[in-house]
Design goal:
Blueprint (H helix, E strand, L loop, with lengths): L7 H19 L9 E5 L6 H4 L6 E2 L10 E5 L12 H4 E6 L5 E7 L11 H14 L5 E5 L2 H6 L8 H9 L3 H6 L4 E4 L7 H10 L5 E4 L3 E6 L2 H23 L9 H7 L4
Length: 264
């Protein structure tokens, strides 16, 4: 039976996944089986290494994703299990050359394992990135508490103003989330419609805030995607803390925000 040995670089990326998953759980951003993580690992493998492993499972992928090798978490799996049960709660899969099926080439050792129900969104985003932002290999979706609250607020209807107020809370938010947050309109989970609105978000922003659901970021690795979400949520949290204390924060001025652009 054909097996696969993971390249050292892939093992290093998987260690980052475990670390970030722990952060998400500690933050209460990954309740039960909430959230999912994926990485485009295609460049780390030769085609002959990944073909012929495992059983093909039919799935209607975007045609351009044919031949992709993707690490992804499992449906119904808890992100907290990625800390020490990575091979049970996630897998690496190979999308066949017709983009009509996938086969699991590593992991997926849990009984009745299957990749996340957001597989269509993740594969679509990875295809989008391969064309427009090939440096972005990681996608992290989670449920940041304060950002979700912001998606219920009237500011969600004014993306420019939402970003201005969140950026204004402290210099680091402007510097480390320079493109800001996209107010992504509601779409049903695990649908092509959700994939479409998320790809639209990443044309202009660092973070896609899924209305009344959660947030997603893409970056070269999962640690950098985590940083986008962590810093963006800190800005939202600080803003809400000021509101809760009964005052409107002064915030950085527009001139001060512009001055910070030299550090971006």
């Amino acid at each position: 039976m054909k097996t696969i040995k993971l390249p050292v670089q892939v093992e290093a990326e998987l260690k980052k996944v475990s670390e970030v998953a722990g952060y998400l759980w500690q933050r209460e951003w990954a309740e039960r089986n909430a959230g999912n993580i994926s990485m485009n690992l295609t460049s780390y493998f030769k085609k002959e290494e990944v073909q012929g492993i495992g059983t093909e499972v039919p799935f209607d992928f975007p045609k351009g994703a044919a031949g992709f090798v993707i690490y992804i978490t499992g449906t119904g799996c808890y992100l907290r299990d990625l800390v020490n049960k990575l091979e049970e709660a996630s897998c690496i899969l190979y999308i066949n050359e017709d983009a009509t099926a996938y086969s699991i080439i590593w992991g997926g050792k849990r009984e009745n394992f299957g990749p996340t129900c957001e597989l269509i969104s993740h594969s679509s985003i990875h295809l989008f990135n391969s064309i427009h932002h090939p440096e972005n290999l990681a996608v992290v979706h989670t449920h940041p508490l304060e950002l979700i609250c912001m998606s219920h607020h009237e500011l969600f209807n004014d993306e420019e103003e939402l970003n201005r107020q969140i950026w204004a809370m402290c210099p680091e938010v402007k510097v480390f989330v320079p493109k800001g947050i996209h107010c992504t309109p509601y779409a049903l989970s695990s649908t092509a419609a959700l994939a479409e609105v998320t790809m639209e978000a990443f044309k202009t922003r660092n973070v896609s805030l899924w209305e009344k659901h959660g947030a997603t970021a893409t970056a070269p690795d999962v640690m950098q995607a985590w940083d986008f979400l962590d810093v963006a949520n800190k800005g939202a949290k600080m803003l809400m803390m000021c509101w809760s204390a009964g005052f409107k924060p002064a915030g950085l001025s527009n001139a001060q925000l512009t001055e910070l652009e030299q550090f971006i």
